[in-house]
Amino acid sequence: MGNYYFKLAWLSFKKTPLLSLLMVGTIAIGIAAAMITITVGYMMGKNPLPHKSERVAMVHLNSWDPAEPISYRRNGEADIPNMLTYQDAMALLTADKADKHVPFVSFSTLVRTETQDVKSAEMHNIRSTSRHFFSVFGAPFIYGATWSEEADELGQSVIVLSKRENDRLFNGANSVGESIILDSKLYRIVGVIDDWQPTPKFYVNSFHMYTPTLPYFVPLESQIRNDFFSPATMGWYCWGDDATSTLKDVMSSECVWIRFWVEFESEAKKYEYFQFMADYTEEQRKVGRFLRPEPNRLMSVTEFLEEEGAITEESKLGIVFALAFLLACLCNVMSLMMTKFYGKGGEVGLRRAVGATKKDIAVQFGCESILVGLLGGVIGLALAQLGLSALTDMYPEYHANVMTMNFTLMVSTVALAVGTSLLFGLWPIYRATRIQLSSQLKSL
Amino acid sequence: MLKMRGVAKSFVTDTVKTQALQPFDLDIEQGEFVAVVGPSGSGKTTFLNIAGLLEEYSEGQYFLDDKDTTGLSDKHKSALRNQKIGFIFQSFNLIPELNLFDNVEMPLRYRDFSAKERTERVLNALEKVGLAGRKSHYPQQLSGGQQQRVAIARALAGSPSFLLADEPTGNLDSKMADGIMSLLRDINQQGTSILMVTHDMDQAKQAGRIVEIRDGHLSEQKIAMTA
What we know:
The structure holds two protein chains of two kinds. Chain A is of the alpha+beta class. Chain A has two domains: about 1-45 and about 310-440, no CATH class; about 60-295, no CATH class. Chain A is built from 16 helices and ten strands. The longest helix of chain B has 16 residues, at about 175-190. Chain B has seven helices and ten strands. Chain B is of the alpha/beta class. Chains A and B meet through helix 1, helix 13 and helix 14 of A and helix 2 of B. Chain A: It holds the Pfam family FtsX. Chain A: InterPro entries: ABC3_permease_C, MacB_PCD, Macrolide_Exporter_MacB. Chain A: One of its GO terms (molecular function) is transmembrane transporter activity.
């Protein structure tokens, strides 16, 4: 019977093509507008590490100036730094209380292969971190693997590249064992990671959450040993009068510049670690540091995203406006459906006369609403893709992932169109089933 | 087959009560061909709507094949209309975007017939009205008389107890009208009861009985039969 009703729906669609297309077009435009904003909002705010977001946490230590806080939070309370000093990062690494530690910073330098001349070198940002970066944040390897524990400790000149850079420099071949030159230092390639773009890029602050991931990764200790120092890229916050002219200055200062993430095998261990941070703070107070009253923080991925405001108020407002627009479109569709179904009073009368129940009529027109919604949804999906593509071109600073619908969103788009079309068709359908039978039989 | 006892219809507004049909009794037996005549506005259509379970009656009882239809739910009335009554309308009431097969099949869609049985019934019905060869044609490709034949096939397809025909030749020229009346007589002679509303006394006389409605009063007419 379902096939029969959809056949009738299609015939009805063809019978009044202009009216039908108007309904489909109205739904398509409303759905496209809604889904563009919903997609951007959803992709910006989704949990990038759903299987372990509560076991991966960022360490915030309050090592700041006792005279005044580093900044104020949105609620007006004094904030604490979300980066660590070098000495604190090293102390946490040495204590080794978490299962995995990921300190990281970035610097910029010229990169080239051994066969390229100096003029061909390109300036790139390099992620300087630990070997656990990839497993903790879920970066997949296509060639090789991360570097060894020894490389972390000794600061060996080893490097992991992104697939994009590997394609550029080595035509996509397995480059493990090859070398590239950072400034004038030779780095041996140990791994190549696949295209990888967590959205949002949760391990950095909100300014960089929707930017592309960095293309090169080296051990933090190797940056120090090779003295890579690029003040503009590294970004630190200082208080007091510490010098910051050299990398060694920054390392020995009270400046905060290292982000520090940890992973635990269980959530229980996270609480033990928080206690360890409190103990560490107490120790440091004894030597005159950590004199501010605000507590330390150990923020899970979801807490950090919330703190950083991964979804802006503007994008939330955008979603509200887009849904309001969709509502207006659907009200128009409802009005058009009333017109269409009213015009079919004669057919309803005839069908009722020959035995159709009110439910039969409701199902028939329900299928017609579903068909209109389905076509509107599919066209809306195409329009939304065009819109997102245009947005990607307009906002190159956001990674394309933010402007890309995943499969769930695509299915949701069509489902939303069908669902809302059916919902807003209920009143016209109800009216159609209530017609006076005897009055309609002369109007077919 | 059809038994009405004290059936009446009145319309009540805030201030006025209009008696469209005065209380009447009527019996129609299986195989009868009954014509309903009367001037415009006399209550013929109201009577036909009540007989076809398309409109509620205000008082009395109406038995269809011994089943009391008083107070039946909409769903049960739909089922009765589908199984017991075949409708033939003055303006044919075919759906233009459906071909003849689909038009005739329509009532069968609301009954639990298999696709095979539906097909057999549709083809048989079209065969009876002489249009089996044109099952894929659309109504607008047919003459008025042919369209009414399709409507008759649609009414017959479900093997109803009786046909309710509302001015079945009203939109046809005399030649086509004669053809339709001839077809209805054949169908009646094969055992299907027919209740036909008409203005045309010549056609009414072709029925076995004539019931006249005048000013809401229903009465048997004693006219010599010539058919």
